[in-house]
Automatic annotation (TrEMBL):
InterPro entries: Actinin_actin-bd_CS, CH_dom, CH_dom_sf, Fimbrin/Plastin. One of its GO terms (molecular function) is actin filament binding. Pfam families: CH. Actin-bundling protein. This is Plastin-3. Residues 130-239 form the Calponin-homology (CH) domain.
Length: 264
């Protein structure tokens, strides 16, 4: 179970990054916010919570060990200037509000969401790409879209990737309406534009995105603002579905909504 939590937290980091990097944290649906924090809390406070989840009962000696461990954890937090809100006893007993405040404060001060040291990617090639664009691109590629997206705007001009993303959020795509490569030499752009028009149509109707003033032509032109407007809604929709699919979300639903601004 611990491993699953660790893996889930690891995999959701790009999504957390996206949520926070976008300055969206305060505008998130309040029911989503505790889920973000719970991912963090579950990774930080899994041991005390374990008791409530019906894990093996602890002996007195183990409780003393837990207190000692909590104290040394707090001594480390002190070095970071983050020893606030909790005592070792709060950590061990799993006081949700205080632990939440502690972890939120730690996260706010040290989000540690720097770019990964990935040997496979030549970051210098990506200069000129904003952090936001890179996040969107990585998100798409992490979902296994084909072809691989190397450039956010140019690689979406035939809308094939966007249509694949619709499928990930359970918007049905009628692939018989879609023009696929290789495109004919003559009129290739027309074929791509038709795909773009279809992508906007799906976004407006079944997906119910807000696409006022966005046409297929804008995607086909690679208009940055308007492409981002669509991609952002796709990503938000997919990540919301992802959070809902997490196994412990049922545990989270009764948690009070968290207002980050009061914790900063
Ligand atoms: C993108 O579309 C918007 C809205 O139609 C427009 O104002 C803007 O000039 C376009 N950008 C480019 C680069 O064409």
């Amino acid at each position: 179970f611990f491993k699953i939590v660790a893996i889930s937290v690891f995999h959701s980091t790009p999504i957390l990054l996206m949520l926070f990097a976008h300055g969206e944290s305060r505008r998130l649906n309040p029911s989503q916010l505790p889920i973000c924090w719970w991912l963090l809390i579950k990774s930080a406070c899994i041991f005390p919570k374990g008791k409530k989840l019906g894990w093996r009962r602890r002996q007195n000696k183990e409780e003393t060990d837990d207190l000692k461990r909590a104290e040394s954890m707090l001594q480390q937090a002190d070095k970071l200037g983050c020893r606030q809100f909790v005592t070792p006893a709060d950590v061990v007993s799993g006081n949700p509000k205080l632990n939440l405040a502690f972890v939120a404060n730690l996260f706010n001060k040290y989000p540690a969401l720097t770019k990964p040291e990935n040997q496979d990617i030549d970051w210098t090639l990506l200069e000129g790409e904003t952090r936001e664009e890179r996040t969107f691109r990585n998100w798409m590629n992490s979902l296994g879209v084909n072809p691989h997206v190397n450039h956010l705007y140019a690689d979406l001009q035939d809308a094939l990737v966007i249509l694949q993303l619709y499928e990930r959020i359970k918007v049905p795509v009628d692939w018989s309406k879609v023009n696929k490569p290789p495109y004919p030499k003559l009129g290739a752009n027309m074929k791509k534009l038709e795909n773009c028009n279809y992508a906007v149509e799906l976004g407006k109707h079944p997906a119910k995105f807000s696409l006022v003033g966005i046409g297929g032509q804008d995607l086909n032109d690679g208009n940055q603002t308007l492409t981002l407007a669509l991609v952002w809604q796709l990503m938000r929709s997919q990540s919301t579905a992802y959070f809902k699919s997490l196994p412990w979300v049922g545990l989270v639903q009764n948690e009070p909504a968290v207002d980050c601004s009061s914790m900063a």
